[in-house]
Amino acid sequence: MRLKILEQTPTLLKLQLKPVAILYWFFGGLFVAGGVLLITTVAKTTTFTCNRVEPTQESCQLITKSILKSQVKNWKLKEVLSAKLDTSTTGAGNSYPLLLLTRDGSISVDLVNANSTQKESNAAQINAFLKNSREAKLTIHEDSRLWTYPLGLFLIASGAICIIYMLMNNIIICIFDKTLDKATIKREGWFGKEVVEAKLSEVSGLNMDAVAIDTVTGTSSTSYNIVLNLVSDKNIYLAAGPMFTAKSAEQTLDAIATFLKLD
């Protein structure tokens, strides 16, 4: 948050606060892009089935569906030779891909949730079915949407919140007028203007607790806001969210405290 003192007299203090938007835009865009990428590329269902009963006439089918596309591959049962792990490469989650070997070549069965051990078990299950002519049906199914959709939407929402903070707080004007006994907070953003007012004398009786720094600690960072504590136990925050750095919060607090002559 960048602080600029627009006007200062013994009876009037006018501050301009502008959010430093680079980090919010960066993380906002990063979270949104990550959520979209997760939903469009990782969220999918994969189903591999083989049948030895009518009317399928001994066939195998691999269906992969995602939000953008669906793929269906069909084989006659005798065209599917075996299944194995491809230990020469690494797939999703640093596990070996599951390969289906057919007469036309090999194809990867995209299992996002399974680790190498689970894929090896799936390969053994497929090979056992192919060798046992009395087994009627085989189905291997996975749905990664159960966790990728919630996580993807959470990332998109988190990114949107960062961006909305920027749009809501394009410029913040704080006016403290001793003559009118009024404190005015104007938030001007892309969504319009918000004005919050209170009597200056009600800011906790103008004692040392009248203005404080509100600290919000996340998993990897700490953000700050400035709060005006009213005698009515209500709080007025300068910004709509914790958008101050430690330095800008201290500078803003000092400017207001000095003007109000708080001890």
* Classification by helices and strands: alpha+beta
Strand order of the largest sheet: 1-2-10-11-12
Specify the helix fraction band.
25-40%
Largest sheet: 5 strands, antiparallel
Backbone CA Rg: 31 Å
- Distance from N terminus to C terminus (CA atoms, Å) equals 25 Å
Would you count the extended β strands for me? 15
Question: How much of the sequence is in beta strands?
Answer: 35-45%
| Overall spatial form | rod-shaped
**Helix-strand sequence:** EEHEEEEEEHEHEEEEEEH
Oligomer: single chain
Q: What is the number of helical segments per DSSP (H or I, 4+ residues)?
A: 4
Mean pLDDT across the residues is 87
- Which consecutive residue ranges, at least 5 long each, have pLDDT under 50? none
Verbal overview:
This protein is of the alpha+beta class and 263 residues long. It contains four helices and 15 strands. It has helices at 21-42, 116-131, 145-168, 246-260, and strands spanning 2-8, 12-18, 44-51, 59-66, 70-76, 80-85, 98-102, 105-109, 137-143, 171-177, 182-189, 192-199, 211-217, 222-229, 235-237. The strands form four sheets. The chain has a five-stranded antiparallel β-sheet with strand order 1-2-10-11-12. Strands 5-4-3-9 form a four-stranded antiparallel β-sheet. Strand 11 and strand 12 (192-199) form a beta hairpin. The two termini are 25 Å apart.
